[in-house]
TrEMBL record:
InterPro entries: Mem_transp_PIN-like (IPR004776), Na+/solute_symporter_sf (IPR038770)
Residue stretches spanning the membrane: 6-26, 38-57, 63-84, 96-116, 128-147, 159-177, 189-208, 220-242, 277-300
Keyword line: Cell membrane, Membrane, Transmembrane, Transmembrane helix, Transport
Top-level lineage group: Bacteria
PANTHER family documented for this protein: AUXIN EFFLUX CARRIER FAMILY PROTEIN (PTHR36838), SLR1864 PROTEIN (PTHR36838:SF1)
Species for this entry: Eiseniibacteriota bacterium
Subcellular localization: Cell membrane
Family: Belongs to the auxin efflux carrier (TC 2.A.69) family.
Lineage of source species: Bacteria, Candidatus Eiseniibacteriota
Pfam families linked: Mem_trans (PF03547)
Record's protein name: AEC family transporter
Membrane-protein topology: Multi-pass membrane protein
Length: 302
């Protein structure tokens, strides 16, 4: 009964909001891309800028969370690569598996659940994990998807175009210089930041509306276990090694446990590395995630 209450309080609102996006796409055939672009290029930078400026974390704590995030993301991806090579899977299947295990939904899903589960104090930590996941997605993610066809220069150029990265740079520079946004600008940024998470959840539902479970069952289950179970294990084991305690540990471990990001399916489609398989893993891990995240929240709160 306690787990059911935790699900109703912390995860059900996320799925209900995403469900509204699903219905919108199903009934009106609404294209999620414009809304996703608004979220990526306007709302997410505003959210991160607002969080960092309003809740300035010590530099050492910021670096610790970022280092933890990169490590927690890398472990399931490296494990997937090693196991796929050991099983002698073809390059496309190996690339698809690594993408599905490496790229986690730390944005529209992860930040929403952290806010509901641990309160506003978790958002600065969760946003740093989200930033790390964005960096990994637009560098390592592109490298994995392209299997060496994209060079370092192109990947870095793609990263430079991600507004969330620049919002963090600006926020950290302002914090170091003890500068503040002018009143009207700060109010505008805060208003935009408040819209970020609901819009992200609508986009998630819209993106999943056309997803179907297709492809080989065993590799899909294997990928889901690595992303959900392996990610949770990596976060749990790495947190004490990086000295994470309190809300930083809660946010970091929970972010590590999130399902596969929709961006993995987008990259798989663009580079033609079994997109149906990756999309199926996105859907499967998202649907199964309440079964793993609910007890994880209970454990982290205890």
């Amino acid at each position: 009964m306690e787990l059911l209450a935790l699900f109703a309080q912390n995860l059900l609102p996320v799925f209900l909001t995403a469900g509204a996006g699903w219905l919108l796409a199903a009934r009106m055939k609404t294209d999620p891309r414009p809304l996703a672009q608004i979220g990526l290029y306007v709302l997410a930078p505003a959210l991160i800028l607002d969080i960092i400026l309003q809740n300035a974390l010590p530099p050492g704590e910021q670096l610790r969370m970022m280092a933890f995030s990169f490590s927690a993301l890398a472990v399931p991806g490296l494990a997937a690569f090693a196991i796929a090579r050991a099983l002698r899977w073809p390059r496309t299947r190996t690339s698809a598996l690594v993408l599905a295990c490496l790229l986690t939904n730390a944005g529209n899903y992860g930040m929403s659940v952290n806010l509901l589960a641990f309160g506003p104090g978790a958002l600065p930590q969760a946003s740093l994990f989200f930033l790390a996941s964005a960096i990994v997605s637009y560098t390592a993610g592109i490298f994995v998807a392209s299997l060496g066809r994209t060079g370092l220069r192109e990947s870095l150029a793609g990263l430079v175009r991600v507004p969330t990265v620049w919002s963090v740079v600006v926020a950290f520079a302002m914090t170091a210089a003890k500068l503040h946004l002018p009143g009207p600008v700060a109010t505008s940024v805060h208003l935009l930041s408040q819209a970020c998470i609901p819009v992200f959840l609508l986009v998630l539902g819209m993106q999943l509306q056309g997803a179907r479970l297709t492809g080989p069952v065993r590799p899909m289950l294997f990928a889901a276990a690595l992303r959900l179970g392996g990610g949770a294990a990596a976060g749990t084991l790495l947190a004490p090694l990086f000295g994470l305690t309190g809300v930083a540990r809660q946010a970091g471990v929970l972010q590590s446990s999130m399902p596969t990001a929709v961006l993995a399916a987008i990259l798989a489609t663009e580079y033609d590395v079994e997109p149906g398989f990756v999309t199926s893993v996105v859907l499967l891990t998202t649907v199964l995630s309440p079964l793993t995240l609910t007890p994880m929240i209970a454990w982290l709160r205890g």
